[in-house]
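Posting this for the archive.
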Amino acid sequence: MLVGGVILLAADYAGTRQAVTDGVRRNSYGEGARREAFDVEVEDSGERVPVEVEVGEQKYTADEIQEMFDRVGRKLDKQILNGNESLDRVETDLDLVTGIPDEPVDIAWELDRYDVMNIQGEITEETLEEEGTLVTLSALLTYREDETRQARHQCTVCLYPRTLKPGEAREQKIREELTEAEAKDREEKIWHLPRTIGGKAVSYYRQMDSRGAVLIGMALITGILLLAQKKQKEMQEETQRSRQLLRDYPEIVGKLTLYLGAGMTVKRAFRKVVEDYERQKETTGVRCAYEEMQKTLREMESGHTEAESYENFGRRCKVQAYLRFGALLSQNLRKGTRGLTQLLKMESIQAFEDRKARARRLGEEAGTKLLLPMFLMLAVVLVIVIVPAFLSMQIL
């Protein structure tokens, strides 16, 4: 927005440095007048006088007015149909419009029979004849810019009673009889519904209220949205958990390697890592990997074998690196701990390399996100450099 404002300001300022020599373009027909502001400089005065003038829209010539009236007349024959197939058979209300879009014309209607149709085009069906009723419509077209310019367009329509479908005819008959029965029984406190309509017995039922269905639909939609939100939140939490596990993995492997190299057993080294975490928990906060290690120690104390506990530790973490780590500890317990320290050293080196690669990837992603602000800054710099040069060229 700042860049756009600077560019518009520069363009407006440049426009004030040039004299208007090619005139002012008027608005097209129907677009209305507009106001133009000028600074008028009188010769030898050296002073600019601010003046505001209303510039009217372009007007039609006499031939163009007649052509416009003919065009509007052709449009009217289709515009007033309002869903009817043609003017030769009209069964529903007409749309006697008072104007045509994009045409500077006002329309006034006259009818030769107001007993079958009013000035709005609404039909009085009770007065229609089955074989059709002819009505002549006369439209007085007036040019808005010059009310002395007028034309008349006439058309004849044939009105017929509306053709009802079987279901609509039955519904209309029932409604008419119920309306008539209700009018006869208005002195009674309770309106007793007629038991027969058209000589046939009828039964009445309350129509089902849709409020319950709407409420159920809203409840279902709300439930689906809440489930989707819960699922999305779980996915985000799982993603954050996985990232935290991967960040802590090199540190955990490095500590185990150090303790094993100092002569501790795998279980004792595992316990030592957990104890260090418990002492520093208030400072570091909850770390998912160390929490899973605590669960693993409790499994061992509750009677699970050490190898099984390590494998369960890897499966609970749900990260490939921990699965590999748990399997490595479990297999070396079965085969013997010889060479385990060397394997863990290699795993620690690989873990740190993976962590550096992830850090580089996150840095590249951050750089990509900064591209948009950089482009905006570049645009501002270009405006600062180009606009003064552009203005100086205009002055020369």
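The CA atoms of residues 80 and 95 lie 5 Å apart. The radius of gyration is 44 Å.
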